[in-house]
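Attaching the record inline, Q. Sequence:
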Amino acid sequence: MRTVRIDIVSDVVCPWCIIGYKRLEAALAILSGQIRAEIHWHPFELNPTLPQGGENLREHLARKYGTSTQSSIAARDTLLRLGQEVGFTFRFFDDMRIYNTRKAHQLLLWANQHHKQAELQMALFDAYFTRGQAMDDEEVLLDLAEQVGLERGQCRQILHDESWAKTVANTEQQWLQAGIQAVPAIILDQRHLISGAQTTENLLSVLQEISSKASTH
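Structure, as predicted:
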């Protein structure tokens, strides 16, 4: 059994990040007898300047990317379909908002030390995309952290600790300097960069190649 380190740079309000992860999960399931994945999640804030309360998602996409309402509807239909294919439920609605995710990333980095990062990451994706919860609401974040087994009081301290906010910013800066400009970015074995939500077949192919190279050395 070969252990493969997998670093995933993502944001919790990025729909392609959960699709990319679910496709990776499917590829790893196929290779479950050959590869043991050691997954680490890393922060990438898509909207670090958004104020508390966020912004209407459709208006945000129009302002930031020039996305028309028609294009937005088409994109949502595509994401709904792709979500169904990988077993994830997207529920988009007209007044859906997008949020600043700095505090969510503070909790995720801290949760890694307690072996709860993966669970919290999935809980955040579900809370935002399936249940429409606010990703900058402290009580929402604390509820989710508590649900995966983290201590609420400690988590509250992390949310108010400026050093954790700086750790998120510094980590993001390191990834930017490493050439990561968009998410999801998946790095296999600290050498192979996979950009975007690749198909399960593509991911499977790269993982098999890594596995076979390891077995020939």
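The radius of gyration is 18 Å. The chain has nine helices and six strands.

More tomorrow.
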